Inverse folding.
């Protein structure tokens, strides 16, 4: 249960702030709904029109995965309003990431002899980071790299390639040799190629935001350079979010003993 939804419903974010975070793929949506079910995530439900809100939870998906079932409210009047509402906006959290989606109209059905609210699977869901530049640390076992559109030095004919340390839809941090080419803050580098696990190579533009020294486990000094994605294409944004979601889910499953 998240701290944000523990005591009272959480207000949904406006639609115009969600577009870049939307997931549309049916498989992704079903996986995310199942993760919310498995995690027993508490849902803040907001009825429209009317503005009534209440707390609920996802119970299960139908066998054909076309319907999602939610707990009814102990208040019969709230259930009646939910059944009359055109749609219901649902807000929750999963692994510290805000999730928001809409369903409706709702119907009441019996599930294992108990009443439940039922709705068609949403056509889209939003996964919103708490902070714009929240970064997921890339597991050391993942071969995620970025080839920069610059050379290590004038004598090297090949573009500089670096290991990705962390990543988000807002930017990334790379590990570079200490004696490599100087990258001043604010410099924009075109034609960089980001290579994710099990994904296509993504051509991106990067802006240097910060630079610091760090020591590896073996004691070797390297550079940690933080970058911001510049005008990231929507397809690349989606692929990065898909990689983050898959990695976070695998990590959570291992922590729960599922892998």
């Amino acid at each position: 249960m998240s701290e944000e939804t523990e005591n009272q419903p959480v207000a949904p974010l406006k639609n115009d702030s969600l577009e870049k975070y939307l997931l549309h793929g049916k498989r992704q949506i079903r996986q995310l709904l199942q993760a919310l079910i498995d995690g027993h995530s508490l849902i803040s439900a907001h009825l429209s029109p009317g503005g009534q809100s209440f707390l609920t939870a996802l119970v299960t998906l139908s066998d054909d995965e076309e319907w999602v079932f939610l707990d009814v409210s102990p208040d019969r009047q709230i259930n009646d309003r939910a059944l009359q509402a055109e749609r219901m906006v649902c807000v929750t959290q999963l692994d510290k990431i805000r999730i928001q989606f809409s369903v409706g109209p709702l119907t009441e059905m019996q599930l294992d002899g108990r009443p439940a609210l039922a709705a068609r699977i949403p056509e889209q869901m939003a996964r919103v980071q708490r902070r714009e530049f929240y970064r997921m640390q890339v597991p050391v076992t993942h071969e995620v790299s970025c080839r920069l559109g610059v050379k290590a030095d004038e004598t090297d004919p090949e573009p500089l390639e670096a290991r990705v340390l962390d990543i988000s839809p807002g930017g990334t941090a790379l590990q570079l040799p200490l004696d490599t080419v100087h990258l001043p803050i604010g410099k924009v580098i075109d034609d960089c190629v980001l290579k994710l696990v099990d994904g296509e190579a993504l051509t991106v533009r990067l802006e240097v935001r910060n630079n610091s020294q760090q020591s590896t486990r073996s004691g070797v000094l390297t550079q940690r350079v933080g970058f911001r994605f510049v005008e990231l294409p929507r397809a690349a944004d989606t692929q990065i979010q898909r990689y983050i979601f898959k990695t976070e889910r695998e990590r959570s499953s291992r922590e729960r003993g599922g892998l």
About this structure: The CA atoms of residues 30 and 65 lie 7 Å apart.
